[in-house]
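Lecture 7 notes: from sequence to structure.
We start with the chain below.
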Amino acid sequence: MVERLFISQDILVPTAVAAIPATIVTPKGQAGERFPLAAYAHGFGGSRDENGAIPLLAEALAQKGIASIRLDFAGCGESRESAERSALSDMVHDLLACVDHATAHCPVDPLRLGLIGNSMGGRVVLEALKVPGRSFRSVALLAPAAETGIAVGLFGGSAAYEAALALAEQNGHYDYTSIFGAEMRLSPKWFLEMRDLVLYDERARFDGAMRVIVAEDDDVLLPAIGKHCAAHYGADIVTISGGGHTFGFYTGQDAIRDRAIAAVTEHMASYL
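Predicted structure tokens for the same chain:
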């Protein structure tokens, strides 16, 4: 039997507004040793495990001496909350709450922090970088939803989006099923923030090291979106082909999944 060189714990991160399901993975080390931390934000309607891919990423990070925390956003995975509390600002709050919990309660070096975002989680990460007083060394984005108003495309255009927003305002929510089968109860706040929060504003700067991983055959978020993001931030680009938008996470394409995991792990290990 191969000895596991890390400790994995499922926890609830307490906040004033929610208890957030999360998993912390910490490398085994010497007494008093503190590790860099990478926090993972999943995609729209996904989960902190992403069909088993992110536990593998967490293990790969731990083997490089990097701790990690990953969470389920409201309405996803093991969260007991409605997705009505899943507007961009809510998800940024929850991601940073998990970072704070890990730095406060785990052997983590608060000066060596990184963020990883997948699809809509990539947009969450980019918004988190704008929060005053926060400092991160390294960011890795997997097919990020890095475009203002990107959610309009989920509804087939502006007219359908505005109609859905009107129904959400009328009923207090809008029931939406994603192309991947995730059922989400969306609030008016979700629609308004996704439509109106400008991504590339004057705060859209990052002094650390960023890598954007693009799926060349992505038919959900076109590769040009990730490439534009990389150009804006002066980020490194890695292009992977064959696994579509999810990099094979949900299609059993293990070799492609492992390439994406390696691209994230190598970047984090280099800069954390």
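Points to note: DSSP finds seven helices and ten strands in the chain. The longest strand covers residues 108-118.
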